[in-house]
Amino acid sequence: MRATKAKGFILVLLIATAACLIRPASGKIPDSIPCSNCHTMHYSQDGAQPSNWGSSGPYDLLLTNDCLGCHSSSTSLTIVNSTPIVNNSVAPTSPLAGGNFYYINISDANGHNVIELGNPDDTLTAPPGEFHSGQIGQDELTCAGNNGCHGIRNFSESVGAISMKGSHHRNLTGQLDVADQLWNSYRLLNGVKGYEAADWKNLDSNNHNEYFGSTSPLDTSTCSACHAGGSIGVKPSNQTISGFCATCHGNFHALSAIGNDTSSPFTRHPTDVLLPATGDFVSYTVYNVTAPVARTTVPTSPSASVSPGSDVVMCLSCHMAHASPYYKMLRWDYKGWPANGQTNGCNVCHSSKN
Amino acid sequence: MKIKRGIILLTVMVVGIMLYVYSVNAGLFINSSHGNSTYGVYRTSIANKGYSRGNCTHCHEQHASIDNAEPDPASGSPSNYALFYDNYINQTDGVCLQCHTEVGSYQQGGLVNRSYSYRAGGWTNDTLNDIEEAFTFSSTSTPPGTSHHLDDIRTFITGKWGYTADSNPCVACHNPHAATGDPANAPNSPKSAANRGYPISRPSMHSKDSNAWGVWGDAVNEKMNSYTANYQAPYRYNSTTSYEPDGSTVQDGSNLTDFVSFCTDCHNTTYNSIYSTPLGRNLRTIDWANEKHGQGAPDRSLSRDAPYGNSTGLVLSCTDCHEPHGSTNQVLIRPEVNGGTLSGTITTIYSPDTPTTRPFTDSNKEIGYLCQRCHMDDYDYNTSCQPNRWYYAHHATSNNPYTAWRCWNCHPSGGGPPSCNTDVAAINCNTCHFHGATISSTNNGTVRGF
Predict the structure, then answer these.
(1) How far is the alpha carbon of B62 from chain A, nearest alpha carbon, in Å?
(2) Which of A306, A346, A312 is closest to A326 using CA atoms?
(3) Contacts of residue B166 in chain A, CB cutoff 8 Å?
(4) Beta pairing partners, B235
(5) How far is B25 from chain A (nearest CA, A)?
(6) pLDDT higher than 90, residue B260
(7) What confidence tens digit (pLDDT) does each residue in B362-377 have?
(8) Hey, of B164, B208, B211, which one would you mutate to test binding to chain A, going by the most A CBs within 10 A of its CB?
(9) Residue B8 pLDDT level (bands cut at 50, 70, 90)
C-alpha cells in the first residue's frame, strides 16, 4: 500500500513536471511555472547563487539571469525545456529561424555581436548604414532595450530586461496583426507584425514564420518613420520587419536609400517593395526558406505559396536576425559563390541569374 | 567478377550524381564570362575581401557598402542597379568600361578584349586590345576612327523592347548575365572551335529574364546558314585554307552567329531615323533582304577574289566588313577583311544624303581599300594596271554597267582612250556605293549600288 502511494506520488510529480515544461511556443511564460524559476528576491539562495543562475547579478526585475542566461545551451539543441535557444556553445543541429549566436564564435561578421555574448565586434564600430551617426556605438548593441532589438526601445526604459517588463507574462503567438504593445508584437520586437511559427523555426515551405512587409519602405524624411507614435522611443511606423531593421540600418533600407521610389533601377537592394510579377521573378511561386518573402497581410497560418506582384522582399529574405554560419549573416554562403558550387540564394528570386 | 561489376556500377552512379548536381547548379550566369568562377568578374577591392570570382558583388553592391565603407571605387553615392559605378556616363565612361580596359581596370589584372578582326579574322597583329580603347575612336582621337556611338544607342533603345532611359547602351547588344567569352578566357588568341563563345543577345528579345534573353548564335537556328544558304565564309588572315570565324574549314556559316538578324534588329528600314551624332545625320537604312550584298539577287555577275570566285547570290554577314565596337576606319570598317589587311585607312565617308552634289568630284577611293579585299580591282585583272582602280569593274568586264565612252559625263577630268591606265580621275566611290543606294547604269538600267 505504501509502495503504491509512493508510485502514485511519483506519477503525479512527473505529470506536474511535464506540465510545467510544456509551454505554448511563444515568449509567454505559463502562469503554472513557479515565480522562482525566473525571479529571486535577494539574488541569493543559502548564501550563494545556484548554478543555474547567472553569475553577474543581481539582475533587473529580480531575475535570476539575463537574456542569454535563459536562451543559451551547452548542447546542440535549440529548444530546451520549451525555451527557444539562440546561443549554443556547440554547433546547433537545427537553428531557429533567427539563427544562432554560436556562429559569431566563428566570425564576428556572421551576426549581431550583442554585448551579452562578451565577444565584441572587431571590425564594426557602428551599425552599417546607420541613419544617425553615433546612434549605437561599438560594444553597445544589446539583446533588448534602447540599444537592442527586443523590448521597448526607449531611452527612459533603458536596456535589457527592464525593456521587456511584463511581456513574457502576456505574450501572444500565432497571428500578430495588431502589434500596438510589446507583448502583442512579433517575437517581442516592439511594433512589428507577423505570424510566429509554433516551433520558432523556418523548416520548409509549409512550416515557417510569416513576416510582415509593405509595398514601400520607411520614408525617413519624417522622424515618425522610426519614432512611431511621436515618442522618443524607436519603433517602425510601417510595422514591418524591414522597417524594424531600418530603424538602425536606415541608410540601407529607407526609401531614400534605394533611390526615392519603389521602381527599378534601385540604388541599393530594395526591401519592402513588391517582388515584381515580371521577368525571372515570376518563377518564384513556392515559398523557399532559403530566401523567404514577407506578406502585406499577416496570415493566420503559414502559406506555401509565393505570389510575385503581391509578396514583398525584405531584409530577412537574405539575412538571419541573430547570426548565421555565413559572412554578413546571410542565409547561404554568398561570399563563396559560385566557386563553392552551392546554391546561391539570390537565384531564388533572380531565378535566371544562376 | 561481381565485385568488379559492383565497383563499376557504383562509379557510374557517383559520376552520374555528380553530373546531375553540376547540371542543377549550372546556369546561364555561371556559364557566362562574368559568372565563371575561374576567369569571371573579379573586382580587386572585392577580391581582397575574399569573395569568390564570378560573385555578384564584383558588380553589384547590395548596400553600397561593405563593413560600413564603400569598396573601391568609392564615389560617395550609390549607383543605379546597385552597381559599383554609374551605369553609363559617356562614350568612354561607365561601369562596363571601368573593367573592360587593359590599364586602370577595377578587374584584377585588367581585361584584354580584342577586335573582331583579331578574334574572327585571326589578325593577331592588331594592337587594339580593350573595349574602352575601341570606344575612344572618333574624329578627334589619336588615331582617328569611328565607334558605335553609345549616347545615340541609348537614345534609340529607350522605350523599345523594355529598355528605359536608365538602360546601359552596352546592354542593347550584350546580356551581362549570359554573355560568354568569344574566345573564352583566351584574350590573346583568335577564336577556335574549342574556345569560341557567344557574347551577344538580340535587342529585340531583351528581357530581365535571361532564360528569355539568352545569348544569340548558340542555337542551330541562330547561325548564319540558317539566315541564308548562300553564305561564304571569308578567309582567315594570311590563309587560304582556314576560314572565319573560328579558323576551321567550315565555310557555310554553320559556325557563325546570324549577325544579320542581330544587327538588323536596329539597322533596318523600319527604324529610318537613327541619328548619328558623329555623322551629323540619320544612319542609312539597311534592307538586307534586298541589297545585293545581302539576300537581293545580283544585278550582274562580277569577278571576285577567292574564296568568293564568280558565284553569284552570295550573302554577307555584317561582321565580314564591320567591327562591332570601334575601328580606325570610317563606319567601323574592319582593318582586316578576307584574309588580309586593308591597304590603307578609310578616313572619309561622304554622306549620300546630298544627292545634288553628286557625283562627288574629289576622287576619294578610300572605300576601295575595303572593296579590294573581295572584289577584283584593275591590278587583279591586269598587273600592269593599278591597285584600287576600278576601270575593269565598271567598263571592261562582260555585262559592264558603263560603256567607256564620253568619259566627261561622269568623270570631271574628261578621258582618253579606254584603258585602265588613263589619267581619268576616279569618281568618289561613295557617289554610288552605300547601303540602300540605287543608281542609273547606262547598260544595266537602275541598279543597286550596294
Answers:
(1) 5
(2) A346
(3) 264-265
(4) B243
(5) 7
(6) yes
(7) 888 999 999 999 999 9
(8) B208
(9) low
